[in-house]
Amino acid sequence: MLEWAADHAGWVVAAGFALAFLEALAVVGIVVPGILLLFLLGAMVGWDAPLLLALGGAVMAGAVVGDSTSFWLGRRYREELWKRWPFATRRHWLDLGEQFFLHHGGKSIFIARFIGPLRPVVPLVAGSMHMPPAIFVPRMLAACALWTPVMVLPGALFGESLELAAEFGGRLTLLLLVLLIGGWLLIWMTRSLYEMAARRSPWWLKNLALWLRRHPFLGRCFGGLVEPGRREVLSVMALGLLLVLSLGALFAALLLAPLSTAAWESGFEFAGLAASLRSHFADPLFFVVALAVSRPVLLTLIAFVTLMLLAQRRWNALLHWWLATLGGWLLALLLNAFMGLLLGRPDLAGSIGQVPHVDFVLTVLVFGFGALIVARDFRPRQRKWLYLGTVALLALVAFSEFYLARATVNGLVAALALAMGWLALTGIGYRSRAARHALPGLRLAAFFFVWLLAATLVVPQSYSAFERAHELARPIRQMDAAAWWHGQWRELPQLRSRIGRSERKRFDAQLALDRVELVQTLAADGWRRPPEISAEALRPVFGKTLRPERLVHLPRDFAGQPDDLILRRMLEDGRVVLFRGWDSGARLGPQATPVWLVQVRMLEPVTRLGLFNTWREIDTASSRALDELRGTGDDWQWRRPGPDAPWLVRSVCTTCLHIDFPDPVGGSYVKSKQ
After folding, report:
1. pLDDT per residue over 478-523, tens digit each?
2. pLDDT band for position 397 (50/70/90)?
3. Phi and psi at residue 187, in whole multiples of 5°?
4. Burial category of 1 from C-beta neighbours within 10 Å (exposed 0-12, middle 13-18, buried 19 and up)
5. Where does the pLDDT of residue 351 fall: very low under 50, low under 70, confident under 90, or very high at 90 and above?
6. Radius of gyration, CA atoms only, the chain
């Protein structure tokens, strides 16, 4: 987004004007999330002073035009406002603005500009109550002038700090943003839907129950569940709707299951979407999350709840607990086996080929039905937080399964749909016969205590084996040197990551060279290792003087592993050419010469926010950076098979003694210097 904003500054400025105008416009500003969008615009601009100034001017102009339009509409329609849509049915919008205006007078124009619900209403009320323009305009201009930096500068600061964070740990920063923003959106949506359903669902569900009882066919089948006077009629109806929606989602996921075969065949390749998020810093967290909901832990929870319900003699709850968890698990195993036969799923280690994903089905069933049992005895306001916590936990588990390449998106969707449908079906049976029980908080605390205790016992014992099983180690594979030179290079990854612009993520070259020879050749031509990361090396980052030769370069991950080799060459203008190499795992010929996947980038030192000294990649200088590398090594041969292909590099002295390389047909071919 930062890069797009730099290339499309006019659109960013125009969007700032439009958002500020709509956010200040009467009625429209109530429903448009202008503050959030303006914050994002500021983040896109960052600390680019000219563009930031232009955006600020556009935002202020949009706010002035929006307030002026609202004021004019108020003067134009006045008493008719109460009779027009939407105020005719939502009188409280104008009531709130009118009370605020009467209480604060002329100051309300200034104050309301900083209060979201009042911002699009008070100028409208001021116009309808005959405020003179000579009083309104100066206050409105002053308010807009102060409001603009309050809206734009925090976003710009965030955008600049985000770019700084990306320089220090791009993949980890992206992962944190996915977790934080994605988690916040999921919880916000869940909470909004729950509160909306709590306010409006009784009327809908009562009418739906009445229609169901009167239906000539459905009434005979399901009318007994929704008879007036029965307990939990609304809960049963809500679970019935959930069942219908889940069955529809499951059917759609199974129809799309053949699309998952692409992921099975590629085995979630190293540059795939899941591998693009892998970071050796974040891996331990997701290993722990996955192990904390592994089958031994979940079976322990099932056994504990069974014993607790037996001790309380809650036979109805015990029967439905077994049916929901063990019955749903068995159903998932059968459906997964059937889909495997139907789709011809390959025999893969792990669970990547499962549709639905069996382990996630069991996780949703255990925590979902556990929440369903306990929520019955909580007050409605308390149930909301229980459901929100369960949703957040299940979302983290689902993301960890995808992150570790244990599940496809389709497999997770099918698992969630199957589990929610089965929970709805068993929940209808349980809720229609359930009785209230005391101390729900104590039972909930015991459930989570046993879960944490079981996880504490399982995680340390299984961690090492689980880590080895899910390590994205590049397998060693033998290749014929001539075959690699003439086309087999295509079997090696072309991108370091699927996330981000392809120009930045593309590998520039594949080098078939021994590590010692490669390092010695580069060192003889002026390439040096950068300072190693340490407390002493981080001091120049915060130093008052920008000293490029002392700045560190943090590692970049490919398939969850940092670069195996990093060297740089300092240029006279303070810039640096940075060489990063990853061992592809390919070995050529009888000498087992490794093939390195290489990126060469031109960087310049910058000071961000006046506080941090770091590096910035120069996209326009990528060809010059590659020329610096091509000038290295007198006995290296270079060949580029196509305009979008990486350069292929081999050592003549090593290969010509053992392998006959005919001249390639097509492509760019550069002879060695000797």
Report:
1. 888 889 998 889 888 888 876 666 677 889 999 999 888 888 889 8
2. very high
3. -65, -40
4. middle
5. low
6. 32
Residue 197 tokens, joined: 């359903």
Angle (CA) 317 320 325, round 5° = 120
The Cα–Cα gap between 243 and 420 comes to 7
* Nearest Cα residue to 542 out of 552, 528, 529, 532: 552
Identify the pLDDT of residue 266: 44
Among residues 553, 580, 548, 569, which one has the least CA distance to residue 631? Answer: 569
Q: Report the alpha-carbon distance of residue 341 to residue 332 in Å, rounded.
A: 14
Average the pLDDT over 4-28 and give the result: 78
| CA 549 – CA 569 distance, rounded (Å) | 10
Confidence (pLDDT) at 233: 46
410-453 residue pLDDT tens: 888 888 888 888 887 787 767 666 666 777 788 888 898 999 99
H or E segment to which residue 133 belongs = helix 133-214
- Show the CA angle centred on residue 312, arms to residues 307 and 313, nearest 5°: 95
Model pLDDT, residue 433: 65
pTM, 2 dp: 0.60
d(CA 592, CA 479): 9
Tokens of 194: 């729950």
- Give the containing element (helix H, strand E) for 617: strand 612-617
In three-state secondary structure terms, 487 is coil
In three-state secondary structure terms, 651 is: strand
Q: Which residues contact 6 (CB under 8 A, 6 or more apart)?
A: 48, 51
- Counting other chains too, the contacts that 662-667 makes at CB distance below 8 Å and 24 or more residues apart are 664/485, 664/486, 664/639, 666/641, 667/639, 667/640, 667/641, 667/642
Confidence of residue 362 (pLDDT cuts 50, 70, 90): very high
E strand or H helix at 136 = helix 133-214
Q: Which two tokens stand for residue 300?
A: 């322990």
Q: What's the mean pLDDT in 141-167?
A: 77
| Residues 6 or more apart whose Cβ sits within 8 Å of residue 534 | none
Nearest to 124 by CA among 59, 27, 23, 35: 27
Give 579's DSSP letter. Answer: E
Residue-level pLDDT at 458? 92
Amino acid letter at 285? L
Across the chain, how many H-helices and E-strands are there? 26, 11
Cβ-contact 140, 150 below 8 angstroms: no
Q: Which residue has the higher pLDDT, 71 or 180?
A: 71
Six token digits for residue 568: 């740089």
Contact 97, 30 (CB under 8 A): no
